[in-house]
Amino acid sequence: MSTTNHQAQQATAAAARERLAGYRRRFDARFEAYFDSLAGNLDTPPLSRFTPRCLDLLRDLSLRGGKRLRVALLYEAARLVTDEEPAGLAEAALSIELLQTHGLVHDDIIDDAPVRRGGPSTYYAYRREFPEDPGTALGLAVLAGDLAAFLSMRILLEADAPAALKQAMLEVQLGAGAETVAGQIIDLERDFEPLPSEELLHTVTEYKSTRYSILAPLRLGLLAAGEDLAGHDERLRRYATLAGISGQMRDDYLDLFGDEHTTGKSPGSDIRSGRRSYAVRAVLAAATTAERAVLESALGDPDCTAATIDRIRGIARDHGADAGLRSAMRRYAEDAAAEASAWRPHWRAEAVSFFEGLPLWNVQRTQ
Asked: What was the pLDDT predicted at 267?
């Protein structure tokens, strides 16, 4: 890549980063106000002590962090058409993040994860509150995740927007929610494959994350702005697929090769959970038979030591698996940026630039 092209990519990515920060600040204030309002407009059992606690835990998890990439995608999708905020967009943003909260709660149950976003997962918060009754803790965590999902749909119906728009948005979110559950199922299925193919990993990524994290926000934003999706859905899908694969590769790379002080967690959680991620597959594919046996013995072992993880990282680096994964994630990011650049004849250039820069900024976060 030439110096000029590299500098242009850096500038585009920096602009995307700045816009993301602005969306996060504004949305977090709105999200907090939404939870404040629930006490007055959600009909809950008056004698229940558990229901307010459930809402408190959902609020805590929802407001505790997150980059709000989905919110940014939603607003920038609307900006492809108009520079004003159309009716229904704010409620769509809340719906997207409530559905994300639902997914996080249930993911942490499936993964038996104690920590999420720098604090206790909802499941482990309940486990601490009911140490002698694990069944109640599990049940309450499942129900908390379910409540977040239903709230994400309810907020769309309450939007001050035309009925046809609300119906169209609800169809997008219901479809995304169902497809994400299917993705979670195939995510578990993937780990029964000794060496999952890249095609299978791409499919897991598409259903488990891409469709609700990228494609749904794009569709919702354009719908709110009055755009007919029929003529644009293929280009939206192409962009979402490429950006989604790049982003998942980055996440998997950071899980094994990331710096603990930067990522906030010790490396190797995918290995300890038995996940055959992009990074794990890259090591398995490159390693010798003896080296592969080291990784296979560590997969699914929650007590796998830091020394073993370091050894696996060394095996990966000896074979160039880490560099290969970095190269692949950048290639997908550049392809996503190129796909976005082809949108210029159809939509506003300023918003198109954001979609060009976002995948490139994402892959820069690999240190």
From this structure: 84
